[in-house]
Design a protein that fits this description.
By secondary structure, the protein is α/β, with parallel strands linked by helices. It contains 13 helices and 18 strands. Strands 1, 2, 3, 4, 5, 6, 7, 8, 12, 13 and 14 form an 11-stranded mixed beta sheet that branches. Strands 15-16-17-18 form a 4-stranded antiparallel beta sheet, with helices on one face. Strands 9-10-11 form a 3-stranded antiparallel beta sheet, with no helix packed on it. A hairpin with a 3-residue loop joins strand 9 and strand 10. Helix 6 runs parallel beside helix 8. Calcium ion binds next to loops.
Length: 482
């Protein structure tokens, strides 16, 4: 270690030997060593597919700040995650497949379960490395105190065990080991959470911080929103997908129009709040040294495939379930801004996953992801620097659905192909050629002209299932109904 002059003088005169002086000194040195480590602001929205962002080509939604972020950073076209809340969040937090940490489906309010004790999270690792770690908003990885984020690596939490509606939220506030408080608020939840996020950033401006801001919107329609956000949709006409060709659908155009407003307006509300956050970073002089990562926890169909909702979708206006892993459900927005490193306005077509966030954040903090055993993701830093030479050719997902319907889906997705095994009923297996059929409207599973591709993908998927304990036999061993 290079010894600076003050330390040299202190050490040589014996002052440094005093315990009090020593700890103060270590703090000073540590602060100097860490001052260049970037802050991390990770924004995760709830049920916002990639296609609900202007920068991804949506002409109807109003998202100027998300779009600006893309023009200043890198937009990932294919960022993939498990298509429901808790499993996706488990992947994000632990860098492991959701079933590897025991999270199969979303955690219902009547369940006493959560992210198991001993699960290593990115927050834990960043905290141990000296970062101030905070989470504001939705957790959804266990409501009992033994599962709370403050025992999973976060120094600070202001939010909800699961979620809260659009207004008047009671917010749990917890600092480390201190007793939690529940603070009642009047006003819009999205605005209030932004205030907590800004306060966390202000309080930790002189430290290296990692803030996970987890908005519970636009989750399945999240009205009301402030008038200023609603104003963008007055008299608006939307480009609807061709939902009418699905005979199961039972909805009028007017009803679908209302659903679009109920989902787009809360996205616009988040967007306006993101603008406030970015302005705050700038005002505090933190813009240059803060990596902003914006993503969503799962996608949403809203008319595509005739469906409403995500991996556990139903046909519009009905209770007919359609468990699925369509891109609309698994592909989420991912935009990363890192001034001076990421080329402004760049686009990445590589396949990335929420598994990759943990190792990416470690590398951002100057840590080695290989020091954490069993991480399944890869650091995205080479992509962000525009210097990747080799990258993965395929991604895998698992979703054992128990609510609304029973399904056991296993997915392999390459840039061109997608194969899904349904262990609940193999007659439902799916194969799509995403190059010819990006909308995934034609299931070509079992067709002779794709038999060799199907065989190859099946082999890869089976090998993965065996490696991670996701085979049908593994399911039976875990006594899962199927
Ligand atoms: Ca969600």
């Amino acid at each position: 270690m290079k010894m600076d002059r003050r330390r040299f003088i202190a050490a040589s005169t014996g002052i440094f030997a005093g315990a009090a002086a020593s700890s103060k000194f270590v703090r000073q040195i540590f602060a100097r060593q860490t001052e260049k480590r970037p802050n991390i602001l990770l924004i995760n929205t709830d049920d916002q597919p990639a296609w609900w962002v202007g920068a991804y080509g949506n002409r109807d939604i109003y998202t100027p700040n998300m779009d600006r972020l893309a023009s200043e950073g890198m937009l990932f076209r294919t960022a993939v995650t498990c298509p429901v809340c808790s499993p996706s969040r488990a992947m994000l937090l632990t860098g492991r497949y959701n079933h590897q940490v025991g999270i199969d489906d979303f955690i219902n309010n009547d369940e006493d379960t959560g992210l198991p004790n001993g699960s290593i999270t990115f927050a834990q690792v960043l905290h141990n490395a000296g970062y101030k770690t905070g989470i504001v908003g939705k957790w959804h990885l266990g409501k009992e105190q033994q599962y709370w984020p403050t025992v999973r690596g976060f120094d600070y939490w202001a939010g909800f065990t699961n979620a809260h509606g659009p207004k008047d939220p009671p917010v749990i506030v917890k600092h480390g080991d201190k007793k939690p408080e529940t603070i009642e608020h009047k006003g819009f939840t999205t605005n209030i959470l932004t205030d907590y996020a800004i306060n966390f950033i202000r309080d930790n401006r002189s430290e290296s911080f990692a803030l996970y801001l987890s908005y519970p919107a636009p989750h399945m329609g999240y009205l009301p929103v402030p008038d200023e956000d609603m104003a963008h949709y007055k008299g608006k006409k939307f480009h609807f997908p061709d939902y009418k060709k699905f005979p199961q659908v039972n909805i009028t155009e007017q009803q679908l129009h209302r659903k679009y407003i109920a989902n787009y307006a809360p996205v616009t509300s988040i967007d306006r709040n993101m603008g406030q956050l970015f302005a705050e970073l700038k005002a505090l002089g933190l813009e240059e040294n803060t990596v902003v990562i914006f993503t969503g926890d799962n996608g949403y169909c809203l008319g595509r495939h005739g469906l409403e909702s995500k991996g556990n979708a139903r046909y519009l206006g009905t209770n007919i379930p359609r468990p699925n892993m369509f891109d609309d459900s698994i592909v989420v927005p991912l935009i990363v801004r890192w001034p001076g490193v990421v080329k402004p306005g760049s686009v990445c077509n590589r396949l990335v996953s929420h598994l990759d966030f943990f190792p990416t954040m470690m590398e951002l903090a100057g840590l080695n992801p290989a020091s954490i055993p069993h991480l399944e993701g890869i650091s995205m830093l080479p992509l962000l620097r525009g210097k990747e030479k080799i990258w993965r050719n395929e991604l895998f997902l698992i979703y054992d659905m128990k609510y609304h319907a029973v399904a056991h889906m296993r997915l392999i997705r390459t840039r061109r192909w997608k194969l899904i095994h349904h262990y609940e009923n193999e007659a439902l297996n799916e194969l799509y050629d995403l190059q010819k059929d990006p909308g995934e409207l034609e299931n070509i599973y079992g067709e002779s002209e794709v038999s060799s591709v199907q065989r190859m993908l099946t082999r890869q998927l089976k090998a993965w299932e065996e490696r991670v304990g996701a085979t049908k036999e593994d399911l039976l061993k875990r006594r899962r109904h199927y």
